[in-house]
Amino acid sequence: MIHSPYVRKPVSVQRTMGLVLLALVPxxxxxxxxxxxxxxxxxxxxxxxxxxxxxxxLHLRRRPVAIAVTDLSAxxxxxxxxxxxxxxxxxxxxxxxxxxxxxxxxHLYGGLGQNPFNPAMIAYCSMIVAFxxxxxxxxxxxxxxxxxQLALILGGPRDLDGITGATALDALRTGLRAGVQTxxxxxxxxxxxxxxxxxxxxxxxxxxxxxxxxxALRIITWHMPVAFIVTLAAISGAxxxxxxxxxxxxxFHLASGGAMLAAFFIVTDPVSGATTPRGKLLFAAGIAxxxxxxxxxxxxxxxxxxxxLLMNLCVPLLDxxxxxPVFGHRNDAKGAGK
Amino acid sequence: xxxxxxxxxxxxxxxxxxxxxxxxxxxKAPLPARLIVPLRQSARAGATCIVEVxxxxxxxxxxxxxxxxxxxxxxxxxxxxxxxxxxHPMAHPSGLDTPCVEIEADGEDRWIERAPFDYHxxxxxxxxxxxxxxxxxxxxxxxxxxxxxxGRGTGIETLILNGAECEPWITCDDxxxxxxxxxxxxxxxxxxxxxxxxxxxxxVEDNKPEAIAAMKEAAAASAHGVSxxxxxxxxxxxxxxxxxxxxxxxxxxxxxxxxxxxVQCFNVGTAHAVYRAIAHGEPLVxxxxxxxxxxxxxxxxxxxxxxxxxxxxxxxxxKADTDRYLMGGPMMGFAMPRLDVPVVKGTNCIxxxxxxxFPPAPPEQPCIRCTECAKACPVELQxxxxxxxxxxxxxxxxxxxxxxxxxxxxxxxxxxxxxxxLVDYFRFSKSEIWARERDKTAADQARERFEFRNFRQEREKxxxxxxxxxxxxxxxxxxxxxxxxxxxxxxxxxxxxPKKALIAAALARAKAQKAEVRPQNTDNLSPETQAEIADIxxxxxxxxxxxxxxxxxxxxxxxxxxxxxP
Lengths: 338, 566
Known about the structure:
The complex is a heterodimer of chains A (about 350) and B (about 575). With about 350 residues, chain A is an all-alpha fold. Chain A has 2 domains: about 10-165, no CATH class; about 200-320, no CATH class. Helix content of chain A is about 60%, strand content about 0%. Chain A has 15 helices and no strands. Chain A has helices at about 15-35, 40-60, 65-70, 75-85, 90-105, 120-130, 145-155, 170-180, 185, 200-215, 225-240, 250-255, 260-265, 275-295, 305-320. In chain A, helix 2 runs parallel beside helix 5, helix 4 (about 75-85) crosses helix 5 and helix 5 crosses helix 6. The two termini of chain A are about 40 Å apart. In chain A, about 50% of the residues are buried. Chain B has about 575 residues and is α/β, with parallel strands linked by helices. Chain B folds into 3 domains: about 20-355, 3-Layer(aba) Sandwich (Rossmann fold), CATH 3.40.50; about 390-485; about 525-560. In chain B, about 40% of the residues lie in helices and about 15% in strands. Chain B has 18 helices and 17 strands. In chain B, helix 4 runs parallel beside helix 6, helix 11 (about 385-390) crosses helix 14 (about 420-480) and helix 15 packs antiparallel against helix 16 (about 500-515). Chain B starts with 18 loop residues before the first helix and ends with a helix. The relative contact order of chain B is 0.10. Chains A and B meet through helix 1 of A and strand 16, helix 10, helix 13 and helix 14 of B.
């Protein structure tokens, strides 16, 4: 290096990505304990696919392969794709999702740092549109043995009526749509635990722990998780208070589906998200609002992924309109002259 | 008197590395045999040489006269003989040459006559002129002329002395505060009087407890209502505008000066130099330089200006694996292209760098928009946005995002996990924009020249036309006077256009001439020749008549006429 500064903080993209992976570990461990070890199979498949696809795309794009593959960004994408998918999806669905994320969303847009959309969320949305049945089979807590999960993942026959129930969000939606049940009546069903889907609360706790770890290390800032959680709680709370029979409680919404994974790991994706403090708040709040709307009035049980993609579209505008004032110019905008 | 401290956004905490040299008391560096004193001590202004080769000079004798508004005087750093006045490379990243006075030291180091300057008895202007002629400039690194800074002193409320020294490795201000606290305070008092400030604050980073203690002790002894304020050690707290923010809460935007906001800030070293200049009549001929880094004996040296860096470095005994030398600190300094350059007023530190201490930066990776740079930026810019704009050469957008507010402190580059040399991109953009502005100015000037040329040509045309019209009118008047009747057709045309009138007049003249002049070559012919001509004429007439009869076609007539006749 010829120019100053001649000293650098010992940080790297690899370190950042490695810490994100580490922060996902509590959630994964909870997943294994509550649902079963099947998720590990899909995590492995996804990781191998992602790294191979990354290397291939870098090679085709004539970019240095070694340094970019070892930055672990592809592994993070692979893990997030897997954790958004039901843990017992057949292996080819995982492979397909990861390929969409790495090849189409990441590299066709110019590689790391260039993608306008969240790769894991595109993977989720494309697969739930293409394979709605497979993408909706969430195993209930502790009811599927590892070998059954393995067989399902390896493409075995899927006679699942007896083994997978509807998810909490799904059951609630179907129940309320039927028009005969109230939230309380639906929540008596077996899919529900103390807060949301049974067992899934613990996985959410795992994600929260990992998220707090990232916050403590300043890998992520507070803006997005707080804005997401507060907005989701506020809007669901407002409707729940006015009509408790027709709308689920804020706690239910926060503990269900991918809310906590999204709050700390999906919404906070730096590449496709807003970058200014105010932009981050608006971005995450927008996602929460869209997610709640889709959960209640949309065609899909979970709306976070669509919320993320829609808000990804708004990022350039959000960033442009929320530029913070620079040093000494704080009063310029207000017109307080000197 | 110590109010609450304010914060500036961002900042970084690189390893301070102050301990290497902070323990070493200031020692006087031995005089080199030859000193090279640049007449230009800062980028802003130079000095006019007032000595000649072979002239003997004393230490402190003026060798360069302040030039222009921003100029300050330059003095001989020791006694000796002027051996050359020539261009010599400077301590600058470019290594460009600048006019220098070379002095062979006589080893006596004999001062000129010095007398204290009674600034109480003198006017403010006289005091500022004295400082200018003592060559006092800011010793923090920017070398801005102190008399110019002081000259802006109207309505200054607060004087701040900058003892933050936030760059890693550098300890020259630390040692100066520890060892010469009373002199610094005396200088500060003079500065305060010159700008009429009410309040005097001295900001020192809290990683220099000995300096703070020494300054407090000196302040207690002199008891002038001075506050010594420890400020949190956070790079770049020693940036002038950052320190002003921390101590007063005032934010001075890009393009404005402290004086516009009632604050003025000087380096502690500058205050010391001001004291020496006023109380002892000593011009600025030496400064404290930290020698540190990858060397056996790091320390702080009082160095005569003009000492070649290579001579000075010998005092620190750089280790064998030293691969380059940094002037200034590692955050904002530069790797010296060569070592035969002299120490100048802005030289605060020379770091011996080795690959171990300053490893090369890892390869640049793509920006992931993690906003670490925005979190670190003390000016609250969005460096990654500026980076994208700079990469795309979208300079207009970069300026819109306040590129020129960047102080190039290096904090963003320091924290970037993708190891992107952000500041380099910003320097590139700034220089491109300057270059384009220069081009634009040049183009504007060219356009103005072109437009003036067009204007001038139009004007000349108009003048010519006016002249012609006058001439035509004159001609017409003359023709009317002489009552010339042979040019009646020219009259209405002349009314329309002076040019036509002229042409008509010229034609009329030609006609008149033609009418007067008869062919001359037939006058003095012999009768035989005349008879021959008459015969030829007669034959031609016959032939012409025949041609008209036989060939009514004019073309045939022409051919027939052209046919040779025997």
